[in-house]
Amino acid sequence: MITLYELKPAFQNLLRPLSNALAHRGITPNQITLTALFLSIITGIILFFYSHISQLWFLLPFILLIRMGLNAVDGMIAREHNLQSKLGALLNELGDVISDTALFFPLFMLVGVRVEFIILIIALSIISEMTGVLGQVLSGTRHYQGPMGKSDRALLLGFLGLLIGLNFFNSIFFNSLFLLTIFLLILTVFNRSKAAIQE
After folding, report:
1. Count: domains in the chain
2. For the whole prediction, is pTM greater than 0.85?
3. Pick from 150, 48, 183: nearest CA to 106
4. DSSP designation for 37
5. Among 43, 67, 70, 152, fewest CB within 10 Å belongs to which?
6. Which ranges constitute the DSSP H helices of 105-170?
7. How many CB atoms are closer than 10 A to CB 167?
């Protein structure tokens, strides 16, 4: 199943000079992971309390792009500079689900959005990442199958932020998109479960 995760190697190649420079300055992967988490939480808080200011929603695609870059860089520094740790793995997994939750949370403030859809998306996002980790427990391999992985959710959120920032908000369109996302997340959980069992 195609997912944006498959573009990760090319993205990492673009960021490798930056990751090497940060590593040589003594920046650790965990510091980068916590920075990405902090940016996500702060962005979520701002958008939650000031959701009525449409221009602020442009923060979503901007911060998500930065977060994706930081997530790629912390992994490269850890692997390529022998800085991998159990704490780092824990922070990565927890940081992803906490960041996703923080960034989806402001959507509750949009008038006309079905709250239960947002709750399901957050819950299924956590379950899909947990399923990927369980694959590592069962077989030693962390699974990233799509079609709605972390990068794909980031693309969705960035797209929604862009639409709201441009003052395009239609509750029927948004709710339909959320329903599609729920279906794709269920499929993601199934694909990751199947891969973990078959491996």
Report:
1. 1
2. yes
3. 48
4. H
5. 152
6. 115-139, 150-165
7. 9
